[in-house]
Amino acid sequence: MKFGKVMEHMEHEVMVEGSYERSWKIMEYEMEEVEDEVAKAISRIIALALNLEVDFFDRQEMLGKPIANLRLLHYEGRVSDPMKGIYGAGAHSDFGLITLLATDDVFGLQICKDKDAKPQKWEFVAPLKGAFIVNLGDMLERWSNCIFRSTLHRVVGNGQERYSVRLHTLWSLVTIVFLNACPPASRKRTLPSKYQLNTDKLFIPALI
């Protein structure tokens, strides 16, 4: 995966005075390429899991021109206290299709595998150098009628600074997402529709 080379290049270039802007542009361009490549690869796995054609999401109106949002995140070296409601980032799920997350070697990210459980059980996600952590988004949960569940996650600080790169991926804005049903090939007849009909243009602003 090219991601490791991108980060090594960035780490080297920022040490050279006056090269930060050039390095950022290079990294941003290469990260966008990686994001597109990885997102499409993951979408093919999702398609197969839903009993669809492997290239179902490759269509122009799906991921032909995906919307991607890249952010660099810095968490200060503060200690979180969940009992007091103090977090690096509170519990939430992302609104898009998938989120690709690259982190440093500092623990902090936690996920809740069963977000409907009472009480909720949280566990740390171990950072893995050169790899992406993949969070599923609310849009995929709605579109698949909960066959895929969005990832509830939060950040719990341990006193160390933490850095990560986050890439949100959404379908094209022209895509109509039928939120009240799964794709025909994957629909379970015994599974009732959980969401009303909607479109991305209406769905996304409601979550921002």
From TrEMBL:
> Which GO molecular function annotations are given, in alphabetical order?
dioxygenase activity; metal ion binding
Q: Which Pfam families match?
A: 2OG-FeII_Oxy (PF03171)
Does the entry feature the keyword Iron, yes or no?
yes
Q: Does the keyword Oxidoreductase apply?
A: yes
Instruction: Please provide the record's keywords in A-Z order.
Output: Iron, Metal-binding, Oxidoreductase
InterPro entries, A to Z:
IPNS-like_FE2OG_OXY, IPNS-like_sf, Oxoglu/Fe-dep_dioxygenase_dom
> Superkingdom, according to UniProt?
Eukaryota
Q: Which residues form the Fe2OG dioxygenase domain?
A: 66-174
SUPFAM superfamilies in the record, alphabetically?
Clavaminate synthase-like
Q: Which family does the record claim for this protein?
A: Belongs to the iron/ascorbate-dependent oxidoreductase family.
UniProt name for this protein = Fe2OG dioxygenase domain-containing protein
Q: Which organism is it from?
A: Camellia sinensis var. sinensis
